[in-house]
Batch of 2 targets.
Target 1
Amino acid sequence: MKNILQENYPLRSLSTFLIGGTAKYFAHSRDLQEVFDLMNWAKSENLAVHVLGRGSDILFADGLIEALFIKYENQELAALGEGRYRVASALPLNYLLMRLARDGWEDAHSLIGIPGTVGGAVWANAGAYGQEFADIVESVKVIFLDEPELQIKDLKKEECFFQYRDSIFKHRPALVFETIVRCQNKTTDQEALMKKMVEILKSRHCKQPLNYPNAGSIFKNVSVTDEIQQLLGTNFPHNKIPAAWLIEQVGLKGFRIGDAQFSEKHANFIVNLGQAKANDVLDLLALAKQKVEDHFKMKLEEELIYIK
């Protein structure tokens, strides 16, 4: 087991942000038993464990982090029939979405283009354009790392406590290693479905700063009532005001600290212009939260996860 452990591993290489210091230990494996043994070893050493996917929504601290970082790399996908699929957590989300579309299912097509893995989509309840990954979750196999004895649990959808960009897995350290998804809405026009997905991808590429390292959307959109929207003179769908709009309204679009910048293309993205540090990003987050609260009396909540 220990022969797959790497010490003093550069964390920036594990994040799409390309920011971060050093992991005390790092390991990757597609063998669940091997990962299970590693987690038990870490528990015996009183080491924190962080399970990683693609690292598309994570900010690592700049210094040494005394923890074990694990990437579980199983990418298996099996069709079970009647719209059900067994999906390993390391499978890229977009691969799954394209498979569902090719099979004629349109339950989650709007999520196309969201970076990361299926495990990450479960963990964060990824969503876009009114659809959420929770819409297609039937059950999740997970190992919670905060229990006295590590064991595999099979959670039904309602036990995952999915909410807007949230789930139980954001509040308890865990390895989500397998998900059963179930689709129910089959299209009669597969060509039109694929065209929709292509248009969504084009829109993402036009609106998002994909030419710089980033961690995706930094803040959650803010849920409001119709009355508040009317007071603000806005008309955003699903009663959610985009965080990008709020950040732009308080004058922070394009604002920069060090090499971290609120993107000039999309204000809810922070981009790494080259040598950004974690503290630069944290300072931008704090500034945006303060300005939005002062101006709009609304609280911004991070989608970005900070690991220190």
Target 2
Amino acid sequence: MQHMNSLRNIDLNLLVVLDALLVERHVSRTALRLNMSQPAVSHALARLRALLDDPLLVRGGGGLSPTLRALELSKPLAEALAQIRTVLGPDGFEPSRTRHAFRLAMSDYGAEILLPTLLRDMARSAPGVDLAVTQLSREGMVAGVMDGDIDLGLGVFPHLPDQVHSEPLFNDDHACLVDRSTLPSGSRMMDLETYLARPHALVAVHGEASTEIDEALHAAGHARRVALVIPHWSVAPKLIAGTDLVLTVARNSLKSASRDRRLAVLPPPIPLPSIGFRQISHRRRQSDPALRWLREMIVRSASEAR
């Protein structure tokens, strides 16, 4: 009953600030998200602390950490605000007139495909919206979405927790890149025995070891030797010429490499699963009008780019 009495004294604007603070866990990022000044966010947090008689967020780890009370409030508050936004409709975000910043995570492969079209579209329809793009591992993107450190993760996600929502953007196929001089003259194929006997290059952020390629090989009773792990899709093809390395990656990441006469793009010698590129976000933010707008922009950009 005491909590109910204290909540009666909190207006909706304060609850919006609290929800954003619990997602961002940073005053300046919250201010940017809500188009407020940092002093205004700090003042709102002070009022919330007084009204709820709890610190709510305390400094630590380079940002703000929620108290137990704040964690108890987080989910019901997000759900309540999502319902309110749904009732009021999508007019809570006007991209043509709003200053806003989004934090995305994707590889250079995803950035090369999506960002040129997305940025052109945003320049026309949302000149005040900014993007900050980082590169994280798959696990890092999922954790970032769960913790509120990033708004969207874009990549390939075979396994996701229930709290994460995902949307398909496009599919790609695997292809192998090798030095042409290491193949028999005129060959356009590589048999499985040769494929397994040669060293391999792997594109993986933070040295991730298991990939869909290796899972498919293991399922068929095979294994490959990964001699090089590198985090950059754009650099990897440039390292193949003059070596006996095999690079097995998304076919569309090899467009530039396919024009290099020293290199050959071949089909994999074993069936590999299609590469489903997706965007992920937290389920509690599905009714956030700003994030919904960005997700729709990215879906359109992916369609145009493909």
